[in-house]
Amino acid sequence: RNIHNIIVAAGSGTRFGSGCPKQFQPLAGRPVLMHTIDRMRQALPGSSILLVLGEPHLKLWHMLCDKFGFCSPTIIAGGSTRWQSVKNAIDTIKLSPEEEGIITVHDGARPLIDSALVARIIDGLQLASGSIPATPVTDSLRILENDGSSHPIDRSIIRAVQTPQAFDARKLIKAYSLPYKDSFTDDASVMAAAGYTDIALVDGSLSNIKITMPADIDIAAIYMAHETS
Ligand code: C5P
């Protein structure tokens, strides 16, 4: 099956709180996003990558690619929500009539993917419309009620969901042709709204963090150092 990979990196990174969004911050000597792209290329050699970037960051990205001698994947203009950014990329994917393609979607802000994780999500697709990495949660959990009260819930039945996520290409394209909902936080939730609920959960990786706060850069660097040691 042909694999089309979408890497979304068009967020403004407001929670990161610096002028330069998190996906361009240096990590182990290179921008976060270059690690993410390189690891995706290593995990799925020969497959295509669509990189979604915000208009205001195009100049910065081209400058960084020059500086680091980095070959950029095809660039797609981002949207105002993650959903719109993914949709803009999906709209450029044209499947040939017989093609039983796969589309993966990955957050540019998760540079710590590895080939084993990517192989697990692709394998998971054999029996389902989608395949996503998930991890158990370690914090205790509570449900908030409207009246301000809360009650504990059993964390053993909860999973935290990461990217990359892989999907049957035709089904994902169909799901993205339906209207946006505020409840969409990832692509599996877009699939669920379209009725594609058979999603395989594969083991995520605790080191596959999404860079969100400045300290996450340091944490990612520590995880990277451990990989090579
Ligand atoms: O904001 P959050 O960390 O949840 O974003 C997840 C990923 O989606 C990031 O890689 C971010 O760059 C991307 N994104 C995007 N377009 C947006 C918002 C977020 O590509 N409008």
TrEMBL record:
It catalyses: 2-C-methyl-D-erythritol 4-phosphate + CTP + H(+) = 4-CDP-2-C-methyl-D-erythritol + diphosphate. Pfam families: IspD. One of its GO terms (molecular function) is nucleotidyltransferase activity. Gene3D superfamilies: Spore Coat Polysaccharide Biosynthesis Protein SpsA, Chain A. Its EC number is 2.7.7.60. Transmembrane segments: none annotated. InterPro entries: IspD, IspD/TarI, IspD/TarI_cytidylyltransf_bact, Nucleotide-diphossugar_trans. The record marks R15, K22 as: Transition state stabilizer. Pathway: Isoprenoid biosynthesis; isopentenyl diphosphate biosynthesis via DXP pathway; isopentenyl diphosphate from 1-deoxy-D-xylulose 5-phosphate: step 2/6. The record marks R155, K210 as: Positions MEP for the nucleophilic attack. Keywords: Isoprene biosynthesis, Nucleotidyltransferase, Transferase. Catalyzes the formation of 4-diphosphocytidyl-2-C-methyl-D-erythritol from CTP and 2-C-methyl-D-erythritol 4-phosphate (MEP). Belongs to the IspD/TarI cytidylyltransferase family. IspD subfamily. This is 2-C-methyl-D-erythritol 4-phosphate cytidylyltransferase. The lineage of its organism: Bacteria, Pseudomonadati, Bacteroidota, Bacteroidia, Bacteroidales.
